[in-house]
Amino acid sequence: MRAGAGSGRRRGGTAAGLFGASLLVAATVLGAGGASALPSAPPSGSASPGGPGVGGTRGDQDEGNGRRGDEENRDDKGDKGDRNEEPGRPGSSGSTSARPGTTPPSTAPSTPPASAPASASTSPSASASASASTSASVKPSAVARPAPAGAVLAAAEAGPGAGLPTAQGLQQALATVLTDQNLGTVGLAVADAADGQLLYGKGENTAATPASTTKLATSVAALSLIPADTRLATRVVKNAATGGITLVGGGDPTLTALPADQVQVAGVPADPDTAPASLDALARQTAAALKAAGTTTVVLDYDVSLYTGPLLHKNHDGENIAAVTPLMVDEGKVDPKSLADAPARVTDPAGAAAESFANLLKAQGVTVQGKAKAAAAPAAADAPVLGRVDSPTMARLVERMLTTSDNTLAEAIARQAAIAAHQPAAFEGAAAAVTQELTRLGVPMTGVLLNDGSGLHPGNAIPPAVLVKLLALAASAQHPTLRPVLTGLPIAGFTGTLGKRFGAGSGAADAAGLVRAKTGSLSGVNTLAGTVVDADGRQLAFALMTRTGAPVDTARAAMDRVVARLAACGCR
């Protein structure tokens, strides 16, 4: 069939898109995480486990419609690094490759419980449920999660004889949209999501600035290194040296000081599967233990020894990312209820968390003497525990991070990967851990340069072909623990950082609901990498990376039209 003729072949035309959208939204709302590793029951006294923010369409730091909160890209922080950046220029047309369009369609399988090497951050209730090296097991959820909706749609629409797109078909279908001058310099890779084999490329092996699509690398490495049901613990222990108590940060930036009925994730109320751990619950546990021992006045300090290295990101601006410390509440926001794309952050997140904890203790009848200070030494490993609350599972944290493009959470997850890989829990150690793990997984790392876990660093470089390889790994039956990488991707026109894209007037509206992708933006840089269901119901992985001087909304719309063309044709 001629390229570009596939839009009429999709049964129902736009109706198919709406059907796909309904499946995608249902899969996200009913079970954020698809069939990925099921969380264990939260320990007593902890907040309910959490997951991705799936309902908000406000955009976030990444897709703020060009506002000053554009994800990693406050112009006053990003211009210099971007303009002087040598790696990251997806240059001339690269090679193209084709495969015979004869293989039957395949879909991403549903996910059994996760398995991975044990992590130092695993809570008592959380262990790898399918790992031969792990003796503990995870209790399955009472309600099974649905498989990724893109896979459901592909299975529903793809006939047994549906062939793969060809390089010639893709080239013909994309020729016009790829010449849009608003795209600037373009790098593109399109692959079969079932096995990751490249179908079409344009500068696909040329390293480009990935911006927030860096989070795909962080997510794959973290879920490969850390059991998906791992939770990050925040504890209060006795301090033998001072006779007081120590609040110990475990690396959970989602810990909240808000009452349960005020907690929102991506602009929607948190439910039992999306709620973060509660600082108030920790204070109640601690106060109860202290009063049971006859203590109503204590000295409080706090332990932030889990991380090393500098607190501030190279592009820290006090809004797009908080100071990176293992102890904070509400991601260090000045206003914990703020839904701004780039909210103001406190200068000392750990100190602010300790102060908030002291106030919550006071409300429970326990007075903290003086002002809480940083602990002189790390808490003893065998120190008696007075209280503990646990984060959502690692699978849910990864999904939330991807859906909302959360820079602070990305750096926290990257540090957990560093700890699991026995690297320093710092920016450099996290980048080294991700690089090392991706290499072990067989990802071609030529041209890849990582400096952080969030993508804020303008010196990061990843070729488009590597991004599609990461997506294919996440869809692979050989790596079921990586499935949250796919289920956490925003849905075009509906959720997270794609909530306001692929809309009416964009020229890409027919692809709404058929695309799930991670967005990325720095000054002059826009990227998009994810999956799309084509007119034959086949799931493709793609990565589109651009560098342009066009207005950000204009550039993004041009990118969306490229992906919409993939959705509109079988391209054979």
Notable traits:
disordered N terminus, five-stranded antiparallel β-sheet, alpha+beta, 28% helix, single chain, elongated, 14 strands, 572 residues
Describe the structure.
This protein has 572 residues and is an alpha+beta fold. Helix content is 28%, strand content 13%. It has 13 helices and 14 strands. The strands form four sheets. The protein has a five-stranded antiparallel sheet with strand order 2-1-14-13-12, with helices on both faces. A five-stranded mixed sheet has the order 10-8-4-3-11. It has a two-stranded antiparallel ribbon with strand order 5-6. Strand 5 and strand 6 form a beta hairpin. Helix 9 crosses helix 10. The longest helix is centred in the first third of the chain and has 17 residues. The N and C termini lie close together (6 Å). The relative contact order is 0.23.
